[in-house]
Specification:
With 369 residues, this protein is an alpha/beta fold. It folds into two domains: 7-194, Rossmann fold (3-Layer(aba) Sandwich); 219-368, Serine Threonine Protein Phosphatase 5, Tetratricopeptide repeat. The chain has helices at 19-30, 50-59, 76-86, 112-124, 138-166, 172-218, 225-245, 250-269, 273-293, 298-317, 321-341, 346-368; strands at residues 7-12, 35-38, 63-68, 91-96, 132-135. Strands 2-1-3-4-5 form a five-stranded parallel beta sheet, with helices on both faces. Strand 4, helix 4 and strand 5 (132-135) form a beta-alpha-beta unit. It is elongated.
Length: 369
């Protein structure tokens, strides 16, 4: 009878703040015959200390997976990693995006943040020979790990096993079983990636409806300003949560910019020009980020120009012509770039340019007087 390959996989992390991530990794590893999840959840009651138990389990493992969030904790995670390196275990390392870590997921004790940064610097050290992968949530972590395990198992086990099988040194059924599991990892990676994409698609459609369609319907009814403001502020709260999960997701950033402009227009209906100005300014900041992320997207340059124009209008109303002109000049630059990329925005660039000329005329008239 052929002996089954069992890869004891030690999963190392702080516990409370990364519980969902650990559960996702355990579920993933349990789907395959070759991988066995080794983690603190199953150590049970032992006479040894927690640290001794963990290090003993690292010694008995074949692969180390390190998941690093916003807490250093008691330092056991770093001790486990050091033990894995001392044993020359292969290590797969994953960092949670800083923007995805909530305040309750960080250490409060003095000095712990510095310890965590030193530990992360050690993990990033190229001399250790492993790559650090970032993730936002448990589903994305599982997807990235499935892909990494597929590649690692192929290089470490399947390729040599297939070579042995071809030379008659390994029973064909064992090589076949391992190959089946690797195909399973590949299929799971695609499945998880598809789920992540579907969640994003659903969220995008929902926010599009709430941002563009619902407020337009509500505008038809007198006295709807408070309800429209509540809706936009609700949108913004949810979008900020999504943004924390992935700060570079373009559609989230654009919805944030759009909803802040929409909030500004509602605040203007309430004659709250101060908060409206702040909302337009925040919208411009998000648009600037989008332009940096995707400089060839005409729509993002157009959005930035619109936000700058709105700021200029409010400043002009306050007779702050110098600041208004600066905003209009910035709008011209963005609008011209948008027009270069898409001719639909030529009129926007002309409008911004005309506003600059008009303000120059007004200032010249005041100086002449």
């Amino acid at each position: 009878m052929t002996q089954q390959i069992i890869i004891r996989t030690f999963v190392s992390s702080t516990s409370v703040d990364l519980r969902q991530e650990r559960e996702a990794v355990e579920t993933l590893l349990q789907r395959f015959r070759e991988t066995k999840y080794i983690g603190m959840e199953h150590f049970g009651s032992r006479a040894e200390t927690t640290r001794q138990t963990s290090l003993a389990e690292v010694d008995r493992s074949d692969l180390y997976i390190g998941i690093i969030g916003g807490r250093y904790g008691s330092g056991i995670t770093e001790a486990e990693y050091d033990e894995a390196r001392a044993r020359n275990l292969p290590c797969l390392i994953y960092f949670k995006h800083e923007s995805a870590i909530l305040p309750e997921g960080r250490d409060l004790e003095s000095g712990k943040a510095e310890c965590l940064e030193k530990f992360k610097s050690k993990l990033r050290d190229s001399l250790h020979g492993h790559t650090v992968t970032e993730f936002s949530g448990s589903l994305e972590l599982a997807s990235r790990l499935a892909s990494d395990l597929h590649n690692w198992l192929f290089d470490r086990y399947l390729a040599p096993a297939l070579g042995d099988a071809s030379r008659g040194n390994l029973p064909a059924e064992q090589a076949s079983a391992l190959s089946d599991d690797l195909r399973g990892f590949f299929a799971l990676d695609r499945e998880l990636s598809a789920k992540v994409a579907e969640e994003k698609r659903i969220a995008r459609e929902a926010f599009y409806y709430l941002t563009y369609d619902v407020p337009k319907i509500m505008e038809r009814y007198p006295g709807s300003v408070p309800d429209r403001e509540s809706l936009v502020r609700y949108n913004l709260a949810q979008l900020h949560r999504l943004s924390k999960l992935n700060p570079h997701e373009a559609y989230v950033l654009r919805e944030l910019a759009t909803n802040h402009r929409l909030l500004a227009s509602i605040l203007l209906e309430k004659n709250d020009r101060s908060q409206a100005f702040d909302a337009y300014e925040t919208s411009a900041e998000y648009c600037s980020t989008l332009v940096k992320l995707q400089p060839e997207d005409a729509l993002y340059h157009r959005d930035l120009a619109v936000s700058r124009l709105n700021l200029g209008v409010l400043l002009e109303e306050q007779n702050d012509y110098t600041a208004a002109k600066d905003q209009y000049i910035a709008a011209v630059e963005s609008a011209k770039r948008a027009a270069e990329l898409d001719s639909r925005w030529v009129e926007l660039a002309d409008d911004a340019g005309n506003r600059v000329k008009r303000l120059k005329t007004i200032r010249s008239g005041k100086q002449g007087a």
